[in-house]
TrEMBL record:
Parts of the chain that traverse the membrane: none
Entry GO MF terms: FAD binding; oxidoreductase activity
Domain of life: Bacteria
Residue ranges of coiled coil: none
PANTHER family: XANTHINE DEHYDROGENASE FAD-BINDING SUBUNIT XDHB-RELATED, XANTHINE DEHYDROGENASE SUBUNIT C-RELATED
Record organism: Candidatus Schekmanbacteria bacterium RBG_16_38_11
SUPFAM superfamilies associated with the record: CO dehydrogenase flavoprotein C-terminal domain-like, FAD-binding/transporter-associated domain-like
Protein known as: FAD-binding PCMH-type domain-containing protein
Xref: SMART domains: CO_deh_flav_C
Pfam family, one: CO_deh_flav_C
Ranges for domain FAD-binding PCMH-type: 1-93
Length: 203
């Protein structure tokens, strides 16, 4: 399909949702409007700089997906507004992205942590890096300081490790029945390192 060819990281994220039966019935819009901090589609779409078009009685407006979430189970949708469209910009340069979900099971599970890494190169040089995190804060978030470490420095193993450490600092996780706050921070470091290594190797 077009999505699989142009935005494979979206397919990765979608494949991690629920079960085959749920994926055949559910919608991306539903996954986003549910506004669970662990929503699998959110980190990938935020990394891709997606926007949401919403419609209400007073007209239409466009919202950056990064600004769409207001808190656990809450969005910025006003009373009477619905999400009608998700816009994903065309990727510029040579890109590779991964979405890695860590949970207790391989299916029908809510993420303990979810990490999306998207790396863009142009003319052989690093142009952009996006690191987005799910299930480790009240809303899905970008680890902007971690991104900056890679954009401002070299792409050594040391900088990858430093970026992973910085990503963990961006988290505001909770302890619940699935995981402790400490474990979520630690697993973010592991997943960010893994995602960065894979992206930098394949882009």
């Amino acid at each position: 399909s077009i999505v699989k060819k142009k935005y494979p990281v979206l397919c990765q994220a979608a494949h991690s949702i629920g079960s085959v039966q749920i994926r055949n019935m559910a919608t991306i819009g539903g996954n986003l409007c549910n506004a669970a901090p662990s929503a699998d589609m959110a980190p990938a779409l935020i990394a891709l700089e997606a926007e949401c078009k919403v419609q209400g009685a007073k007209g239409k407006r466009t919202i950056s997906l990064e600004d769409f979430f207001a808190g656990p189970g809450e969005t910025v949708l006003k009373k009477g507004e619905i999400l009608t469209e998700i816009i994903v910009p065309k990727l510029a340069g040579k890109c590779f992205g991964v979405y890695i979900k860590h949970g207790l099971r391989k299916a029908m599970d809510i993420a303990i942590a979810g990490v999306c890494v998207l790396v863009t190169k142009e003319r052989g040089k690093l142009k952009d890096v996006k690191i987005t995190l799910g299930a480790v804060a009240p809303t899905p978030i970008r680890a902007k300081n971690a991104e900056r470490i890679l954009l401002d420095g070299d792409l050594s193993e040391d900088s990858v490790t430093e970026a992973a450490e910085e990503a963990a600092k961006a988290c505001f996780p909770i302890s619940d029945v699935r995981s402790s706050e400490w474990y979520r921070r630690e697993i973010v470091k592991v997943l960010v390192r893994r995602g960065l290594r894979e992206c930098l190797e394949k882009v």
